[in-house]
Write a structure and sequence with these properties.
The protein is of the alpha/beta class and about 180 residues long. The protein has eight helices and five strands.
Amino acid sequence: MVQITISGLPGSGTSTLVGRLSESRMLTSLNGGDVFREEAANRGLSVANFSQLCKTDTSVDHALDDRLIESMRDSNGPDIVESRLAGWWAYREEINCHRIWIEVDVEERLRRVALREGDDIRRREESIIREEADRQRYTRLYDIDILSMEPYTTVVDATNLSADEVLLAVERALDN
């Protein structure tokens, strides 16, 4: 069963953290964003268009989330699951694990996304629009406010931290 969930908004560094944590602790992982992007590609859609599909076809979201929950419950599944809702799923499914949220202020997240995907003002606007659409979708589908910290055992404000400092903060939390 999953030992750790990592969640945060786009640009918060969750994928970087999972990679480093997996390496430092020799743990396996499943990245929810990769699952989402893989399914979009399988359907021949951009991430933005796939996100739009999810707004109109709720079965897509449910299927993706069911896959994550199944993997979290699987005794042979990944040690770490990263997705925006992974902490919520572990909380609601009463899976005893560390549930970590990485908090980063919006300006810093947008800066990081711009560095990763190219500094284009249109992309920044798309990120904000997509984030709000996803937030509304989670509320409508699951009655989850993605910004609520209720399910998390650890919240790390990574706004002004390097990737190494985030890893250190999370490792300290895991060791306590």
